[in-house]
Design brief:
The complex is a heterodimer of chains A (112) and B (114). Chain A has strands at residues 4-7, 10-14, 19-25, 32-38, 44-51, 56-59, 62-67, 72-77, 86-93, 100-102, 106-111. Chain A is mostly beta strands. Chain B has strands at residues 5-7, 10-13, 19-24, 31-37, 44-50, 53-56, 65-68, 75-79, 88-95, 104-105, 109-113. Chain B is globular and about 40 Å long. Classes of the chains: A mainly beta (112), B mainly beta (114).
Chain lengths: 112, 114
């Protein structure tokens, strides 16, 4: 059974700092990994999707890496801003189109 | 392009009552998912449809939960009767199809069972 763990559970940083969020999964047989952002009381916004054959994906100040063999992914946020404050979730899919298995998220607070 | 629509956004009921949630996926998306997110946890899949057929309902509590996707577009998720532990956010997501796995989520319905 796939299990996804995110560390840390909560993180508070000053504005402008670069930061890394970690995600690990127990079964390396994944099809892809997706990072989401969730604001309080809102749904999930897809940030980045990495196929199992890829090593990283970038979008603006966000960079996600994937090391499938070790069961790890990181989300790097450069020059953090107060607007980045949210919960960040990672999720893996075992096969194309299959369910996503989520971690419990990292709650990020960026202080002005 | 319009996103995934869900209604209602909030619902408060008493235990043993019934409730229904509605989801309209992104136009043209063949695959539809219902997830349950309990406070402080990541979402967990309840049921997955491909067009109007069920692909995965292994984690759906079938004694009280039911879902349908008539005509392969809109979907309804029902709980009858509700229990206290059903208090959660119910998220609907859609993707283009089984070969394209990027899932897009709606705003969710927050259910409180008293």
């Amino acid at each position: 059974k796939q299990e996804v763990t995110q560390i840390p559970a909560a993180l508070s940083v000053p504005e402008g700092e670069n930061l890394v969020l970690n995600c690990s999964f127990t079964d390396s047989a994944i099809y892809n990994l997706q990072w989401f952002r969730q604001d309080p009381g809102k749904g999930l916004t897809s940030l980045l999707l990495i196929q199992s054959s890829q090593r990283e994906q970038t979008s603006g100040r966000l960079n996600a890496s994937l090391d499938k063999s070790s069961g790890r992914s990181t989300l790097y946020i450069a020059a953090s801003q107060p607007g980045d404050s949210a919960t960040y979730l990672c999720a893996v899919a075992r096969t194309s189109g299959s369910r996503l298995t989520f971690g419990e998220g990292t709650q990020l607070t960026v202080n002005p | 392009e319009a996103g995934v629509a869900q209604s209602p956004r909030y619902k408060i009921i008493e235990k043993r009552q019934s409730v229904a949630f509605w989801c309209n996926p992104i136009s043209g998306h063949a695959t539809l998912y219902w997830y349950q997110q309990i406070l402080g946890q990541g979402p967990k899949l309840l049921i997955q449809f491909q067009n109007n057929g069920v692909v995965d309902d292994s984690q759906l509590p079938k004694d009280r939960f039911s879902a349908e996707r008539l005509k392969g577009v809109d979907s309804t998720l029902k709980i009858q009767p509700a229990k206290l532990e059903d208090s959660a956010v119910y998220l609907c997501a859609s993707s283009q199809g089984l070969s394209v796995n990027e899932q897009f989520f709606g705003p969710g319905t927050r259910l409180t069972v008293l």
